Amino acid sequence: MTPIKSTWVLLSVIISVASYADELPKGFKRIPGKFVDVITDMEVDEHLKELPQIFDAAIPIWCEYFKVSEREVSDWHVEAFVMGAKERFRNAGLIPTTVPDFRYGFQFGNQIWVVEQPSDYYRRHLLLHEGTHWFMNRKYGDHGPPWLMEGIAEWMGTHHWDGKKLTMGIIPKTREEVPYWGRIALVQEQLAEGIAPTLETILQYDSRAHQDVDAYAWSWTAIVFLLNHPSTKDDMKALFKLKEMKSDQTLSKMLLKRMKPAMPLIRQEWNAMVTELEYGYDPSRGMMKFTREAKWIEKAPAKINVVANQSWQSSGIRVNEGDILVIDATGEFAVGKTSKPWKCFATGVTLEYYRGEPLGKLMLALADGINNDQTHTQPIEAIPVGDHLEITAPRAGELHFRINESNGGLADNAGQLTVSIRKK
Ligand SMILES: [Zn+2]
Fold it and tell me: Which residues surround ligand 1, an ion (CB under 5 A)?
């Protein structure tokens, strides 16, 4: 989990070749795969036995992400030590003395160490996390800055495995799907406590930040945003096409420079995503994005459609603080509920509540770019609208609308509302 200096890479290749013997010390077993050999001191059960298959299934996914051809990696190989008792590996010389002490996992050259975990999920997670470090190190000669190195490893480590197919880079639907992972809970808690870091703080983490478990959760969250948000995803894709990465701040500075013209809006778009982030969060439902050239609200009503299966939808309408807004909504839509969807109007259905308001109720976010540096990520306020709302704008900004439901529940909805917006 500690960044490895690129000068160590050559050395580590030599070390790993030297230790790559068929004969293992007594008490250790080797489970061979194509790209990995798993070496363990534990009894080989069905879960340990399938680790090489899972690691091999990750290779084409890493190739796709990091733009490497499968031909290029055909002779890449790693030893993965899955350790019931770490001291046993140290004593047997299976952890070089140059490797510092670590708590969960470590990668060095063509070797990975994973400390045994209380769930099969989390053991695989750590293997894929360290495997991502290994793959990036092989491709880029280094891992990139701390947030990128750990954020991507966490992103790719978060996976679904059904015994045959591996999917990496998932956002878990439930806590039970990813036992002992806990990233989303930490993000929600820190946002509620007002201590959530800003995107810019995360992008400037130094190499010591990840001694703290918080930094893993926030680096993962930054990756979820940057990979998916329309304001940043092309810049992220461009990073992966690079031939090499340094572990200093070069890449972070490059990315921040590209984002700079839109940064006030991106800060608020980030706030909106963090506010929405919970189990089942689905970025394909759309993310709050400001209209770059929004129009001012007028006395003549403007009409927009708000679809039921998308997250925040920008209206393209800006207001000033103190404007009196009149918002009316008509139409009927369906909120998907397993086999029998509920018919719903703008007032929502009171059979179920989400975040204190009826499910399906029309909600408004009035938000603007943030010019001065905010010290912490702030939640976006969702104002209940229903079928009619007259409100004095508490601040200037653009109007965004959605129906009230958790992001992960939006996909099975159908239909839309027509929303009329005017200034009184
Ligand atoms: Zn790591």
Answer: 1, 150, 153
Q: How far is the CA of 124 from the centre of ligand 1 (A)?
A: 14
Instruction: Answer left, alpha or beta for residue 40, where phi above 0 means left and psi between -120 and 50 means alpha.
Output: beta
Among 118, 114, 196, which Cα is nearest to 380's? 196
From first to last of its 424 residues, what are the pLDDT tens digits of the chain? 444 444 444 444 444 444 445 688 999 999 999 999 999 999 999 999 999 999 999 999 999 999 999 999 999 999 999 999 999 999 999 999 999 999 899 999 999 999 999 999 999 999 999 999 999 999 999 889 999 999 999 999 999 999 999 999 999 999 888 888 889 999 999 999 999 999 999 999 998 888 888 999 999 999 999 999 999 999 998 899 999 999 899 999 999 999 999 999 999 999 999 999 999 999 999 999 999 889 999 999 999 999 999 999 999 999 999 999 999 999 999 998 667 888 999 999 988 999 999 999 999 999 999 987 789 999 999 999 999 999 999 999 999 999 999 999 999 999 999 999 999 9
Token readout for 190 is 């820190």
Distance (Å, whole) CA 358 – CA 350? 5
Q: How many whole angstroms from 9 Cα to the centroid of ligand 1?
A: 16
* CA–centroid distance, residue 110 to ligand 1 (Å): 15
Q: Residue 295 — left, alpha, or beta (φ > 0 → left; ψ -120 to 50 → alpha)? A: beta
Q: Tell how far the Cα of 244 is from the centroid of ligand 1, in angstroms.
A: 18
Distance 395 CA to ligand 1 centre (A): 42
Query: What does pTM read for this prediction?
Result: 0.91
Is residue 27 within 8 A of residue 40, CB to CB? The reply is no
Inter-helix orientation angle 250-259/263-276, to 10°: 100
Ligand 1 centre and the CA of 84: distance in Å? 19
The distance from CA 202 to its chain's CA centroid, rounded to whole angstroms, is: 13
Ligand 1 centroid vs 182 CA: distance in angstroms?
16
| φ, ψ at 357 (rounded to 5°) | -125, 155
Dist. CA 224 → ligand 1 center (Å): 17
In angstroms, the CA 129 to CA 42 distance is 21
Nearest to 242 by CA among 259, 231, 255, 232: 255
How remote is the CA of residue 353 from the centroid of ligand 1, in Å?
39
For residues 206 and 98, the answer to whether their CB atoms sit within 8 Å is no
